[in-house]
Structures are given as structure tokens and as C-alpha cells.
Specification:
The complex is a heterodimer of chains A (about 120) and B (about 120).
Chain A (H helix, E strand, L loop, with lengths): L4 E3 L2 E4 L5 E6 L6 E8 L3 E9 L2 E5 L6 E5 L5 E5 L8 E8 L10 E2 L3 E5 L1
Parallel strand pairs in A: 2-11
Antiparallel strand pairs in A: 1-3, 3-8, 4-5, 4-9, 5-6, 7-8, 9-10, 9-11
Chain B lengths: L2 E4 L3 E5 L4 E3 L1 E4 L5 E7 L5 E7 L5 E3 L5 E5 L4 E6 L8 E8 L10 E3 L3 E6 L1
Parallel strand pairs in B: 2-12
Antiparallel strand pairs in B: 1-4, 3-9, 5-6, 5-10, 7-8, 8-9, 10-11, 10-12
The chains are: A mainly beta (about 120), B mainly beta (about 120).
């Protein structure tokens, strides 16, 4: 089975712009979660989508949004980029629906640099 | 709410010696606990998971962890370190869907493992 894929792998944007990141989960996985990793804040949960619905949300401003398509692929969008949004954005998928005992499988991440 | 505390930000060992990475958790219910590893410029790889079955959990690459409820600990160990083990390790707790957590993971701050010759 192919793993979780994320595109693009690297991205450079300017303050004020918006960006869309894409994640394709492992085939058959219906839950996709997004995480932000920075040296200062570590790994923080952004949101989770399950069957095209946002099921869980972290403590990020409304500039961060996401969606999930019927094929479970997910996108996250960041509008009005700030320098502090520079980070590695990781996507994870799991085949768990109601149980948290299922491990999450992570993609390689998208490295976003905001200048 | 659940949380994890990784007690050491950096650990340095010699190749061939044992590895101990410490993690304490806080959870109001029976948690699911994981250890993930991240090599430089790579994504996260699952090492092992605890889900209320056996308290001693064996993972990949010779790693194992023991769940101790009385100590609220989930330390990661390996009998003999290898150069390829050098990476950052994260202790992770998963929220329980019964409390509305879904599949949210809460990460520790990470332990950077250095392996020296």
C-alpha cells in the first residue's frame, strides 16, 4: 500500500498570501488529521476530518481551514499568511473510526516558508 | 484533558549501550499511548503503541516501552543503541473519542537522541 502523500513538499510564500496544501491518505483510511510543527511550539494539532466532516479542531485562528473530499483526500488552507506560519505541516491518516487505538500514519510533510 | 511530559530534551549514549527515554502522561481515563520517531527532514514513524492490552509493548527496531499506571509513565527503552537510532523521539497520547476527542494526538516536546561511537 502506498503511504500518506503530501504535496507540495516545499513551498515559499509571501506575507499576506494564501496557501493550499494537499494530503492523500492511505487507501481505505477515512480519517485525516493535520499538525503543525515548529521549533518553538513543537507539534500541534490543527484539525481532523472524518467522512468529509471536521470532527475535531485545535486552537488555531480561523485563517487555518481545511476540507475533505469524498475520496478522503484532504486540503488545508491558510489565508493571510504571517511569518509565524512558517512550519512543517504534517498530515496523518488512520483507519480508525470510533476508536483511538488505531495508530496514525504520517506523511513526509510540507515545509512552508513565509517571507 | 490529556498531556505528556518528556523528561529529557536531549539524551546522549554510546553505541552499544542501553537507551532510556522517559515519558510521563496525564489522562483522566485509560489512554492510548504511542512513541513516534522523526529522523531529520522526515515525517513521523510509529515505533510502538499501548492500548490497554499488555503493559510491556514491543516495537520496531528493538525498542520497547512499559506502561506503569501507578507511576503514570511510559518510558521507551532499547538494550543496545545503534548509530541509526539517532533521531528525535516523541511520546504521544491519544484523546478518547468518548470524550469527544476523536483522533487527536497530543505530543510531548520531544527527546533528541544522540548516539556516539
Amino acid at each position: 500500500k502506498a503511504g500518506v502523500t503530501q504535496t507540495p513538499r516545499y513551498l515559499i510564500k509571501t506575507r499576506g498570501q494564501q496557501v493550499t496544501l494537499s494530503c492523500s491518505p492511505i487507501s481505505g483510511h477515512r480519517s485525516v488529521s493535520w499538525y503543525q510543527q515548529t521549533p518553538g511550539q513543537g507539534l500541534q494539532f490543527l484539525f481532523e476530518y472524518f467522512s468529509e466532516t471536521q470532527r475535531n479542531k485545535g486552537n488555531f485562528p480561523g485563517r487555518f481551514s481545511g476540507r475533505q473530499f469524498s475520496n478522503s483526500r484532504s486540503e488545508m488552507n491558510v489565508s493571510t499568511l504571517e511569518l509565524g506560519d512558517s512550519a512543517l505541516y504534517l498530515c496523518a491518516s488512520t483507519n480508525g473510526d470510533t476508536s483511538t487505538h488505531y495508530e496514525q500514519y504520517f506523511g513526509p510533510g510540507t515545509r512552508l516558508t513565509v517571507t | 484533558a490529556q498531556s505528556v511530559t518528556q523528561l529529557d530534551s536531549h539524551v546522549s549514549v554510546s553505541e552499544g549501550t542501553p537507551v532510556l527515554l522517559r515519558c510521563n502522561y496525564s489522562s483522566s481515563y485509560s489512554p492510548s499511548l504511542f512513541w513516534y520517531v522523526q529522523h531529520p527532514n522526515k515525517g513521523l514513524q510509529l515505533l510502538l503503541k499501548y492500548t490497554s492490552a499488555a503493559t510491556l509493548v514491543k516495537g520496531i527496531n528493538g525498542f520497547e516501552a512499559e506502561f506503569k499506571k501507578s507511576e503514570t509513565s511510559f518510558h521507551l527503552t532499547k538494550p543496545s543503541a545503534h548509530m541509526s537510532d539517532a533521531a528525535e523521539y516523541f511520546c504521544v497520547v491519544s484523546a478518547d473519542v468518548l470524550t469527544g476527542g476523536g483522533n487527536k494526538l497530543t505530543f510531548g516536546t520531544g527527546t533528541q537522541l544522540k548516539v556516539e561511537l
